[in-house]
Amino acid sequence: MVTKRMIWYMPVLIMLLACISGSSVYAGTNLIKNPGFEQGSTAWTFVNHNVRDVRGEITEVEYHSGLKAASIVAPSTPRIYSSWYQHVAVTEETLPDYVSVWYRAPDNDCEVILVHKSRDEAGGLAVKGSVRLPLKKGADWQQASMKLNFPPDTRYIVIEMRVSKQGKYLFDDIVLERRAEDVSYNRPYRFLFVGIDHNQMSSSSSMPSLWVDALKKKGWENVSSVSWDDLTPKLLKQSRMVAFVGYPSRCELTPKDAAIAELVKEYA
Length: 268
Fold this sequence. Notes:
Layout: H1 4-8, E1 45-47, E2 55-59, E3 69-74, E4 82-89, E5 98-105, E6 110-119, E7 125-135, E8 138-147, E9 154-163, E10 167-177, E11 191-194, H2 209-217, E12 223-226, H3 233-237, E13 241-244, H4 255-267
Parallel strand pairs: 11-12, 11-13
Antiparallel strand pairs: 1-4, 2-3, 3-10, 4-9, 5-8, 5-10, 6-7, 6-9
């Protein structure tokens, strides 16, 4: 329940969640679930396009690390292709820039395919493109890796270990992660002051420019302000830190005031 008191008597300065848009995933965090197949096929799906003699299995006999690995055994050439795949949800902050896999392919080459998807106008997911990592034929365990550069609006990635030729293939220790540290995805995006307009930001009587300069030195590249009446839920969600330095003087709570207050209360 939101009351007028919750809005009219907000503290002069309220610091909200340091990352209001969601929890941060730091550089080096593997986005793949069950990357070494130690939990069997959990989080992974095998597809053989109804070719019965092409098998996808979790083996405890041959592996790179741990005690298990995934295998594809194709006694004959797959009709289309066969693969182990996993769906990975990403945000602009967690967008990966590196993929690697350990594998054995003694009979033929294979590949890793990464399909990236973005939201369309209707809010659904649309395929925007794909990236291919070739895995060259080799009897011993070897690692293949590559750097990635997905569009910032990518929200879903399908990673797939794909085979299209006859043979036996083993896969282990899959990594999909963001390795870069000094990138805009991991920096604060916006420090927002609410209750003061932009023209007042450099006024010593209201908001000392020293404050703004100090914030920018700390890495806050976007320091901006907005009046309460111009504040929107979208702008609030785009901000990583919000400071309320003013509040409306209305006597009655408007529907917009209530909506903003509910959003603020969620993160306070």
